[in-house]
Amino acid sequence: MSTVSKANANPLAQAADAVPASAAYTLSICARVAGALAALYIAIDQSYDRTQILAAGAAVIVVLSLAPLPPATRAWFSSLGAAVLFFGGSLLLSYEAGIVMLTAGAIGALAGLLHSHRSGNQLVAAVSAFFIGSGITAAGVALIIFAIEG
Asked: What angle is formed at CA 94 by the lines to CA 47 and CA 128, rounded to 5 degrees?
């Protein structure tokens, strides 16, 4: 069994190792808070019921992802919250706040993955949660389309 020395590690791993885990976690939190605020702005500002519900639902999920959790589950929920912002923001790109949601989701996801890498938490779980977030967003949209009028 061979091991790769730090000098021979890939450039992404070297860059990830240069960032403190606490800084990555703080960036992930800040990005998700900014994205949740943008989603709330859309929910309050828009008059179209379906848009309001999508944005408010995204904000609720993101706020729940900010709960202090044990390290084993923190990466999963952090990534899920970032994913909902990213995919929800991609659906709301016609609004400036939707661009903020998309950007905050991307930054939050990358920072969360970086934190998972640096702290030795479950990186695979964080990546899986990101893609599960796309499914949650799609299911929410389908539910809104079929259940909400106007």
From this structure: 105
Q: Could you tell me the CA-to-CA distances from 16 to 39, 68, 124 in Å, in that order?
A: 29, 23, 16
- CA distances in angstroms from 69 to 14, 72, 116, 145, 148, listed in the order given: 28, 8, 14, 33, 33
* Mean pLDDT, residues 95-105 taken together: 97
From CA 53, how far away is CA 38, in angstroms rounded?
14
Whole-structure pTM value: 0.86
d(CA 85, CA 139) in angstroms, rounded, equals 14
Of residues 134 and 3, the one with the higher pLDDT is 134
- 10: Cα separation from own chain's centroid: 25
Give the CA-trace dihedral at 127, 106, 67, 51, to 10 degrees. -110
Tracing tokens 């939707």 back to the chain, one arrives at 98
Do residues 81 and 106 lie in contact, with contact meaning Cβ atoms separated by under 8 Å?
Answer: no
Helix, strand, coil share of the chain (percent; to 5): 80, 0, 20
For 101-116, write each residue's pLDDT tens digit: 999 999 999 998 888 8
